[in-house]
Each structure stands twice: as C-alpha cells, then as structure tokens.
Amino acid sequence: MDIKELLANDRVKPYVSKARFGIEKEGQRVDLSGNLATTNHPEILSARDEHPYIQRDFAETQMELITPVTDSVEELLSYLSAIHEVAYHSIGDQEMLWPLSMPPQLPESEEEIFIAKLKNVESVQYRRYLAETYGSRKQMISGIHYNFEFGDELIQALFNVQSDMDDYKQFKTEIYLKVTRNYLHYRWLVNYFYGASPSSEKNFFEDRPLNEPVRSIRNSRYGYTNSDDIKVSYSSIQNYVSDLSLMVKKGLLSEEKEFYSAVRLRNGHQIPHLETNGISYIELRNIDLNPFETHGISYEQAEFLHLFLLYLLSKDEGANKDEWVQEGDTLSDLVALEHPLQQTQLREEAETIIDEMEQLVEIMSLTVSNSFFTNLREMLADPSKTLAGRLFEESEKSSQSEVAIRLAKENFLQLWDKPYQLTGFIDMELSTQLLMFDAIQLGIRVEILDRQDQFLKLQFKDHVEYVKNGNMTSKDSYISTLIMENKTVTKKILHKRGFRVPLGDEFNDIEQALRSYEIFAATPFVVKPKTTNYGLGISIFKDGATYEDYQQALTLAFQEDTSVLIEEFLDGTEYRFFVLNDEVHAVLLRTPANVTGDGKQTIEELVNEKNLDPLRGKDHRTPLELIQLGELEQLMLKGQGYQLDSIPKKDEVVYLRENSNVSTGGDSIDMTDQIPDDYKKIAADAVAALGAKISGIDLIIEDINVPAAEHKAYGIIEANFNPSMYMHIYPYKGKSRRLTMHILHYLFPEVV
Amino acid sequence: MDIKELLANDRVKPYVSKARFGIEKEGQRVDLSGNLATTNHPEILSARDEHPYIQRDFAETQMELITPVTDSVEELLSYLSAIHEVAYHSIGDQEMLWPLSMPPQLPESEEEIFIAKLKNVESVQYRRYLAETYGSRKQMISGIHYNFEFGDELIQALFNVQSDMDDYKQFKTEIYLKVTRNYLHYRWLVNYFYGASPSSEKNFFEDRPLNEPVRSIRNSRYGYTNSDDIKVSYSSIQNYVSDLSLMVKKGLLSEEKEFYSAVRLRNGHQIPHLETNGISYIELRNIDLNPFETHGISYEQAEFLHLFLLYLLSKDEGANKDEWVQEGDTLSDLVALEHPLQQTQLREEAETIIDEMEQLVEIMSLTVSNSFFTNLREMLADPSKTLAGRLFEESEKSSQSEVAIRLAKENFLQLWDKPYQLTGFIDMELSTQLLMFDAIQLGIRVEILDRQDQFLKLQFKDHVEYVKNGNMTSKDSYISTLIMENKTVTKKILHKRGFRVPLGDEFNDIEQALRSYEIFAATPFVVKPKTTNYGLGISIFKDGATYEDYQQALTLAFQEDTSVLIEEFLDGTEYRFFVLNDEVHAVLLRTPANVTGDGKQTIEELVNEKNLDPLRGKDHRTPLELIQLGELEQLMLKGQGYQLDSIPKKDEVVYLRENSNVSTGGDSIDMTDQIPDDYKKIAADAVAALGAKISGIDLIIEDINVPAAEHKAYGIIEANFNPSMYMHIYPYKGKSRRLTMHILHYLFPEVV
C-alpha cells in the first residue's frame, strides 16, 4: 500500500489538509520576581477538579491549559490564547506563568513542592506515587502535548481508494501506527528546531549531569522518561496493548498512563479499548514550551507538526518496525543533547526531509505560511536561529532565569493589556467575547457554532445551552422578543398594565398623519420611524411645532419606515436598566460625546486627551468609541458658539453630539447604586409584563429623587431584546457590572 | 355651558371624532326553507355559556353576536362580519340567520318556543319569568344594540375648556345624560330611516292589532316594551337610579335589566354602580335589523348613529327634561306606526336636523362617506327608499317571508363563499385570519395589537397569550427560533444528535469556495445562499459539475448572501412535516405548478380549467395561487418540447415550473395518513433536538416505503420557525389539517 500514491489520488487530494487539533500546555505559576508561586490554584476557576480548560498537572503551581478540539490551527491558537487570558486574569495581577519547560528555581527540599490539592483522592495518591518514583523535581518539567487527528474525510477517502484492507477501523489504526512509528523515528527533527530546554535552574538536578547546554534536556535521557525496563512495541496495536498491560502487571508501571512515550496512542478512552475500538488520534508529547511565544507555541510550529505528520504518513518506514522506533529513540536523544549552537549531526538528513516536505506541499496543492520553508532552512543552516539557540544566546548576556522573567513579564503585560477582549476572537462582538471569557473561567465548555453570527454552544456536564449575541437564550420566549421588537405592541401592553409610556399614534401614511397635526401642535412630541433604531429620522419638538416643521419631520420619518409613530415627548434623563430574570443588575446613564474644560486646553486638545483612554477605540472593538471631530461635531460646536480651537472654561462641559449613543463617542456612567429601588422595581416589573427574562429597558426619569409613584415621574421608552452588555461591564465611569457572568449563572445555576 | 361652542374650540376639535363602538346583534336561526330551527345552539362554540362573541338571547334559536369594543366603525364592522362568518360555519350548512327583526313564523303553541338551554340556573329562571310576563312570542323579536362611548380624549378636552364643573366624572355623566335625553327625544328619526319591521309573520300576535304595515313594529307600542307603569326619569343620574330601584322594589321589574328603554346607561357594572362610578357609555337599543345587509347593519347606519350622537351632544334640549323625554316616546311611537310609504309627519323637522348635522360636519371638519347626506335627504323625500319602505315594496311582490328567505340565502352564500378567509381582515395573512376564526369560535378573545405585523393578543378568562403570524408564540424559546433561522447551526446540532443532514461547508468568500471545487466536483451537490429562503441563487448539480458551472453557481449564490453553503444533494421527494409540541400534525407534499392532460385540451386550456378552483387566487389571498403562463412557464414548457397550444396525452402530467412553491402555482397534497410513523418520529425528534415546539421541518425521503432507519433513507433539509399553516388547512388534494385549532388548544389547554 503506497500511501504517497494514494494521497495524490484525485479522490483523496481535496481532503488531505482536513485535520483536528488540540493542545495541552503546562506551565509553572511564579510571582512577578520569577519565584515559584506559594499560592493555591485560583478559587475563581469554579469547576476546579473537572475544569475542561484550566487544570493542575502534578503540582499545585503547575497550570495545565487545555484547548478544545478544533478543525484548524487558527482556531486552535485562538482558543489557546483565550484560555491564557482567562488563566492570567484568574491568577490575578501578582503572578505569571513561567515561559520555560524547565521549572524556575525549585525549593531546596522536595517537600516544599506541593502536589496539586485535588479533591479526588486517587488523583492525589497517583501524584504521590509519581513523586516517590521519579522525584518531585522531575515532575515539575512542563511542555506541550499536541493532539492530532487526521480528518475523517481524509482517512475515509484513503480507505476508499485502496484495496488491501477491508476493515475501516483497522485501516485507520494502521494509518496512525505508521505515522507514530515514523514520528518516533524522526522526532529528532522536532528536537532540533523546537527543543528549548538548554539548561536547568537551581535545585532541579540533585547532581549535575550536564556541564554544557543542550537543545532539550526535557527530551533527552535526563528529562521526563520511564526507566529503561519499559519496552513497548508499536509494531501492532495488539503488541502495544499487550506490552503495556505486561508492564503494569509486572509493576513496572502503576498505570498505563505512566508510560511516557513521545507519542501516545489515543481513542478517548482507557488503553484497553484501543484494541477493540482502534486508534482515533495521537498525542505528541515531546514539544518544549516555546519561550518566545506568549502561549508557548507558534503558529508555524503547529503548522509544521501538521505538515510533518502528513509527510510521515506518506513516507516509507524501516522494515523492522521495532528497530525503526528504537533508532528513533537514540537519534532523538542524540540531537537533544547537542549544543544549542552546534550544527546537528543529522543536518543532511534534515535537509532531505525539508525538501521532501516541500515537494509534498506542491503535489498536494497545500498552502503554508509565507517563508515557511525558508525559515526552516535558515534554522538548519544556523543553529542560533533554533529555539534552543536563541534562548541560549540570550541567556549568555545575563542568565536564563533573567531572560525567562523578562519574557514572562512581556507576556503578562500583553495578556493584561485589553481585559475586555479575547485576542483570538476579536472579530466577534465584545459582549460575546466577554461571555466566552466568563464561560471558560467557570469551566463551561464553549463551542462556536457560527462565528459571524455570534452563535455559541455552551455545555456543563450534560447541560447544553445555546446562546447568540451573548444574551439571546433559551430563557426568553420567542413572542416576548417579538413584543419588544415592536414598539407599538410594547407600549400597548405596558400601558394596559398600568405603566406610564409616552402616548401617541401610529401612522401608515403621511396624509393621515398630517391630518392629526392639531392633536400634537401645541404639545411636546417626538416623530419617529416605527422600527429603525439608530436615531435616524427622529425629530423632537419640546414645545410643539409649526405645521411646516411637523410636515418636514414626517417626511424624514417616512423616509426610514412605512410606519411612523408620533409620541408625547417626556422630559427627563434616559437610563438603561439591564433586567435579568426579574432583577435589575445594572443601570447606566449615557451622555453624548463631551469634554470638560480646564480653562487651558482647546476643545481639540481636550478631545485628544480624552481619547487616550485605553477603553476608547474604533469600530466597536473597545467598550467606548473615540470622540470624532467630524462635520457633525463641528456643527454642534458651532451651534454653541465654539470652534475646535475654543478654550472652554474650567469645569464647563461641552457637548460634541446631540445623541447619547456610546457608538458616537458618548460616555457610559454606571448608576446602579444611585438609582432608587422603586425605579428598579418598575423596570423589572415592566420587563416581566412583557414576558421577558433578559431585556435592556429605557426609562426617562424626571428626577431620580422624586419617588416613582408620583404622577409623571417616569416614562418607559422601549425595551430591547438584545441589549448591549459590554457597556455595563466597562463603563466610562462607575462600577463594572459583570452581566455576562450573571447570564451564565442564570443559564447554569448548577455552576457555583 | 354651550357644548356646541366648546366642541368648536381648537383644543377640542382634534378629538371630536374619537369614539368607541360595540354591537350586539340578535337573530333567529332558521333552516334553509326559513322555518325556525329545531336544533340546539352549536356544540362547537366551546365556551358556550360564557362565549364572548356568540351567545343565545332569550330562545335557544336566537343567536346573539357580540363584537368587541373597537375604536372605529370600520373595525366594528370587520369584527361583526368575522363573527357572522364563524356563526354561520358553526351552525353548519343546513341553517341560516333570519334577516328580519320580526321572527319567522312561530309555532302555534308558545310551549314550542324553547328558551335558551343555558347551564346557569338563574339565567334560565329569568327567561322563564320573561316568557310568563311578556309571552315568549314577544321575546323572539331581534334587533341590534349599538354601544357607544365618546373618546376619553374628547370628554377630557371638553372638560378642560369648560369652567362650570369641577368633577370630571360628574361632567362625563352629564354629557351622556344630555345625549341620552336628546336621543330619546329625537329617536323617531332613526325609526324613520332605519325602522325595518313593517309587519309580523304568522303566530306572532295572538290577536292582530295592526291591519296596515308600519315603519317599525319593534319600536312601536306593539314591540318590545315595558308596561305603562314603568316610569324612569333621565333628569339626573340619581333620579334614574332611584326610579329604577323603586320599580324593582315595587315588583314592577324583576331586575334593572328588565327596563327596556331605547337607551340604556352603562358603566360596565350593575346599575347600582352608576351613581358612584358615573356613566361610561350608552347602549342604543332601538335599531331594527337591516334586512338588506349581510350583518344586519350598514356602514352608513353605524356612521349615522355616531354623527347623530355628536349632533345631539351639541344640540340644546328642552327646558323640562322629563317632558322632553316623554315627548320623544310619543314621537317615536308616532313615526314607528306610520305607513312605510307615507311621508313622515315630522319631515320638516327631520330636514332641519339633517341640515344641522351637515353644518356640524363642516364646522368640525369631520369626514363622512360620499353621498352620506344625499342619501339621507333622498330617504326623507322618498319613503320607499327607507328600509321599511324597501322591505314593504319588495314584500308586495311576493310576501315578506319569501323576501326574508331570499335575503337569508344570499347572506348564506356570501358567508360560505370563501371559508379560508375572514372578510373583514383580508389584509392580514391567511394563517392569522384562520387562527382568528378559530379563536372566535372557541370563545377566546382576539385583540389585534398590530394589524400590519399580524400581532394578536388572545385571552381566555385571565389567561393571555400573544401570537404573531399565527404561530410565533410564548411556547418557543427565542434561541430555538434563532437556531432554525441559521441553517449551518441547525445542521450542526442535528448532525451531532445523529440525524442525517446533507453534509457540506459554509464559505464566506468565493475564492475559498472555488478552492474546494475538487471536494464536490464529482458528487451530487447544491450551492445555496445561507439565509435567503425563496429559492433565489440556488443551483443543483445532480451529477457533479464542471469548474465553470461551479464558478457560475457560486457567483449567483454570492449575489444573494455573503455566506454560501455547498451541500451534498439528496435525491428523493421533499415533504413538509408540521410539528407541534413533539407531535406531527400534518405532512404535505408540494409539487411544482402542473396540469394533467386529457388528450383533448391544450396546455393553456388545462391551466385555465385548473385555475377555476375557488382555492386559487392571487397575492396569497387564497390558499393556492393561480398557475401563471409567463416567461418562466413557457421556457419550462419549451424545455420539454411543448408550447401553450400543445395537447398533452391523457393522464400525462406536464410541469410548468421547476420549483414546488405553492406561491408559484404549485399543488399542495396532504400526505399525513400516508407517511409512515418512523418518518414522523424522526421529524418530531429533530424538532425536539432543536429545542423547538412549533416548526415546519423539511425531509427529503427517497422512498416512503423504505424504513427510515435504513442507511440514507432520508435527510433533513431545514426547519422553519414560521411555517405556513394555511396550505395544510386548505390543501389542493387530501384532508384538511386544522393546525390553527391545534395551536389554540396548545396555547389554551383549558379550552375544551
């Protein structure tokens, strides 16, 4: 069976790049000076022992970040980045993750290395056993496990075009066995490029076996290995399983998982099932942390591993399968123990492999990053460009430890830079990013069903909830959102239930509306299109209007919609109440874009100064928007007798916009603690009257110090079924209200 | 207080035409030969005793149709028409309603007039008392009660511009008392125009007091009146209430409601509350059934009464209020007993009133129907144009009874003509009209919150449900509808739950989609825009496609949406399953527009013949659409080697369209009983997997005789959260499935 030929078959080629990925990344928590943390794993990671994304490995300080399975390397790294952001914010701003595989300086006594304080007794006992058998120091080494699965479409296509085997499961298992043996044989190449553990810190080795730096202590015989008695054959799945069982039976291994091979065969269950169910994916375990990457691995590395595995699938292996693997062990150790700046002894072979990989890319019409092969060849030509080489060279200037601390701090700053976003998902809406952040923190599984559409699947154990736009959930009924969408219906229902709403009429043609002029002529009123929401076509007449103004307002409104509302204008301040499950969780005041004078700076300077706020940005990527100085703003200034270079008096507030939308540079001010309970009750009751569970309801309040019950003290403008949440979470002023967390607790009351 | 002047005040004028209306219309059920029905009130009107729309008055055969309160005469008549349609369909096609106020020929013995078989014992006892006191014959007279309320805005505006009274409630009561007294004084004018009970049928009078025909027996002393002992003053609310109480105390009346005045003062509660709560509306009771109107009253009549009441509000009354009313009684009787073809003795006064009404219309800038005043003046000049005059003249040719039967039959045909619609609401969607029909029948109150938006409020006792488009309800969660709206998410969820869906990919740019050509090249597949629903931009390749075709299909699809799906094409027949609350209630097969040859007629002739089906029409106003013979149809014919004048062989089916949408002339065929249960279970389970309660889910089935469990026997295309219902209720072929009724029973399980 010539797999290389099969891969090039037209019925296989379209699927060659299909694959699924997952990463587990360990790392030690350290304080800001680089000392191993003495704190416990963060309490806030609620689902601690069973957390799907953030776990502890051997030690209490050893964080393990676990991505979900993804269909692309891009998504893989997006999740890895998101989980890092959550991890950093969970451990707080006095700790960071050590960026090296080799741990920071360890305590003198092994006793002071605390194994993970898990609730599960067996998990703790297993770690105690490991500490006794291998010593706790060894267990402190960290790394990356790269889980890889060929796309089922690919294996299916390969199976369909071959005729040697009849059983699909068996075929698939053979595919993975071949790749595994080849990987074990050629893994020295990974050590060369990406080995990154040249030396250890104080107290790691009891005796110092290495005087010279190497490419990878971790992947050498001095790393994390089983004793030499452990022999497991990869020649067939039967041999693999029976060898492993034998090792356990003999007591050489406590459990199958104690077998520390560079590749673990997986099928999502315990080892015994491998033989019956076959291999469904493999786990590469020989990846050192990349110190130069915030998340411990680069896109190119992940891409390399994928391509390398495809290449190894196509490549012939040695005749004797066991020898082939054993040779690999020797070569891996050899390259791992080379000096980081030394040319590898296997350079020629490496060059051949790179050439063959490039050919494969061409034959298969695969796409790789720009300069993918150039970079690999450069690393081959110049060892100082490999990870180990770079780390060693940098460490020469000071020490490896200081380099690590510097890199960790850079990561720290980067990961705390924009707390309102998930860097891997910035194309999604801010509220959805924040909800994903919180879900990851709570240990609720997040799957993106439709990225453009902000459609998430959330899962905690067997409990599944679907969420769109962060707040559209199973808790609201369809009709309640349709009620909120229709301003006339909302008002009718609220009015009937005794709430105060601006009275008025709906018109479907301008003639009919014009005939009603006299009804409104002398009263304060608003003309607005029935369904547009962005302030377009709205005219406000605070003291009535002439017939001409009335006519013009109607013309404008009818340009936006076929139905127009004319409503009583209510005077007062508009507040947004965020209601969730009959309770007000946040109240926000929005003010139009403005600056406050200091008697010295011009309006333009004041705007520029205010725009320095890191929360302000463009295109809804930040919780607040930059104040613009465009035509509308200058017109507004002119109306007040100002220009851009006018200097407002100290404490004078100058408005640059009529409308108070955050999206046009307005400010958001949390008022939750200032608004009296009676208004909150009205908001919550009104939302309940609409049958809604999640709503942002807008109240005009004349004076919050006047009790709500007094005549005309408030009016309800509208209720929104998709209310923005991020503006409450990152307001311009006042307390943050973590609404996304409330949503999650509402959806998953069992998560505490 | 000169109300005429107040009405002309600029602050009052805008509100003058605001009013609220309601009608109660009685009528005797008769068989198709005009004999009083011997059947019971229809069982199907579930909420029988408490039915808000269809009740029994005195007798079991005497239907009382009751409109809700409306804000306009148009809406009033729309409801009256709808309730008539429901009433006719409820009594079945062997009965109709007698169109005259005077009953049809009565049984010889009063014993054979069955009083209404109500459950409530007191109601039955009251009717027995009436039968004993007045005789059952008298109680068989029917008529219209016209409930009228001035707009609260109007009374409020009047109150605001006057200074004589301080108490609003008292002011309002005085307004109504004045109008009532004037109405009682001038009601002879209504008798003249609209009196329509010139003579009685056999067995009505035991002795015949009238030898000559009159304008209105019903409104004369021979009609439905109290004994002469009953004297009630309208001079003040106190006098009215105390007089009534006295009558009851003396035993002259059994209850206040036995007082048969031409105007009843109302406030929605029992009489004793009138004094404390004031009058909130009045009930005009002297309106004879208009024999020439399907619903017993014309638009102009309703308009006249509104305008007449406004006029009476503006008109001065006599100095002695009690005398003023008593004079009215005399005048009313006088005009009622005039010969229908005789000029009225009060013609001059009538002309003055009409002139004054016209002046009022001008002063107040009110709008009335075209020729409103011309018609009134013609009736004044020519008594044969009054209702009594017309009925009498027509009866002269045969008999009043025969005229009545003919008119009843005309109504019968009209009310059965388009069973799929509610004539007063044809601007609304068919499914909503059908749901309203069923709600009215079940006695569930219907209020239209937004007519354009198909937004209804349904209420049974205290239980309120809101419904949009007939099937968007509180039962579905918001997220389930969003899931169904998103085809990719729907497929992902169904696929994960083990349902078969066409596999494929979503593409957001054409380049990326083009690169995937090889994946689909040789397979059957469909290219379609992600969110459009009307078949636009869809290309089907049943045997793969060339690159050029593939490219063109993508270009078309991307013109419709920014996301395009490429999916496996499933061969088979598409069925629509309507699932409600985990149960399949209907399965429909839709076929493209087609005709079946008879070996004689041309295609054009066959189409014309098929289009005669009364279910076919235009613009979704009918359950099926007319088959067109436009460009697309002719192209389709050409592709099969046909032209419009080709003559297909007998039993040959010729298709005129590719797509099977009912909206382009397709046929709908009910298959509910033909589809095996295993497919129904799949449909119901899939909808449940989406968390939905109401959905139209489309399955492609290769062969309904192959069990669903067999590999590839079906595939789920999509689930619709707003599935059409009328096409199941009025299919082209097969059984009707009354889904609107199922929806109502689902929303209101307490209604049986």
Automatic annotation (TrEMBL), chains A, B:
Enumerate the catalysed reactions. Answer: L-cysteine + L-glutamate + ATP = gamma-L-glutamyl-L-cysteine + ADP + phosphate + H(+); gamma-L-glutamyl-L-cysteine + glycine + ATP = glutathione + ADP + phosphate + H(+)
Report keywords, A-Z.
Answer: ATP-binding, Glutathione biosynthesis, Ligase, Magnesium, Manganese, Metal-binding, Multifunctional enzyme, Nucleotide-binding
- Tell me the segments the record calls region Glutamate--cysteine ligase: 1-336
Copy the pathway line from the protein's UniProt record.
Sulfur metabolism; glutathione biosynthesis; glutathione from L-cysteine and L-glutamate: step 2/2; Sulfur metabolism; glutathione biosynthesis; glutathione from L-cysteine and L-glutamate: step 1/2
Q: Where are the transmembrane segments?
A: none
Annotated ATP-grasp domain residues: 491-748
GO function terms (MF aspect)? glutamate-cysteine ligase activity; glutathione synthase activity
An example Pfam family from this entry, by short name, is Glu_cys_ligase
Listed InterPro entries: ATP-grasp, Dala_Dala_lig_C, Gln_synth/guanido_kin_cat_dom, Glu_cys_ligase, Glut_biosynth, Glut_cys_ligase, GshAB_ATP-grasp
The Swiss-Prot or TrEMBL record lists the needed cofactor(s) as: Mn(2+); Mg(2+)
Name the Enzyme Commission number(s) assigned to this protein: 6.3.2.2, 6.3.2.3
Top-level lineage group: Bacteria
| Signal peptide limits | none
Subunit field text? Monomer.
Q: Which family does it belong to?
A: In the N-terminal section; belongs to the glutamate--cysteine ligase type 1 family. Type 2 subfamily.
Designated name of the protein: Glutathione biosynthesis bifunctional protein GshAB
